[in-house]
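This is your field. Pick holes in the following sequence-structure pair:
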Amino acid sequence: MYYKNVVTIIGSKETMPFTVQELNSVVDILQANGAIIEDVKWLAEDEACDIFFAVLSQEEVYILLSQLFMETKLPFDFVVQNNGGRKKKLILSDMDSTIIEQECIDEIADFAGLKEKISTITERAMNGELDFKEALRERVKMLEGLAETVLSEAFDSKITIMPGAKELVQTMKAHGAKAVLVSGGFTFFTQKVAQMVGFDVEEANILNIADGKLDGTVKEPILDSSAKLNALHFYAEDMGVGLSQTLVVGDGANDLPMILACSDNGGLGIAYHSKPRVAQQAKHKIDNCNLIGLLYAQGYSSSDIVLS
């Protein structure tokens, strides 16, 4: 039977299980406010569950569950959306603090003793407080003179893949999706990360190097929020899919335009463990679980997941 609306509740079996008891609390709240619960489907035992509902709007369910989890202080994530077409054909993802756990430029800066100074600028830029292009140029200029070998050292010693990233990409690809990594960071890192995780395509900025050293500049034009949004439209058109068939995920202000464009056109735009200004504006947020939660949001069950 087809149901129009679904809310997916996502917990963590290890740290915060979402059990039948929590499910009953959610159902009680929804029913007490006039919702008809049409069906319930467990996607992963003690971890993720789909609740199909009618009568209440998606916005009303979002508000009710936001209040419930805020009052109870239970760190569950949830996504409210249309049930149709949930499994997306294109994933377009940010890299830093999304597919990897770090900000690459901050880790490079550590080799120059500038991590604290540069990471402060990074944080402000990602929260939308600074112009992205100017902030990037400023930070790269501070790295002038560092040996090119520092890039390899930073990657090998500091960069780690976000939990669930490989499962997310590999599972979607196993079901026919294309995976695109688009970053305001640097190609040296996106090339390696794309290969490790399984992305089909990667785009990022290019650090200029002269005589084996960073020359303090980045190749123009800089890949910023507009370029990310353009990439979303380009790859969706190239694949012949609408934005409703896309999943976009990122954490920073430079990701927000593509996240909003995706959600506004019926796709799944996710702010993942995002900066405050991004979380305030995004329709869908994942604040607690790892990237496997994005598979549950698409209706995949634990038995569907391709393990890394």
The CA atoms of residues 4 and 84 lie 7 Å apart. The chain has two domains: 1-84, 87-308. The chain is about 40% helix and 20% strand.
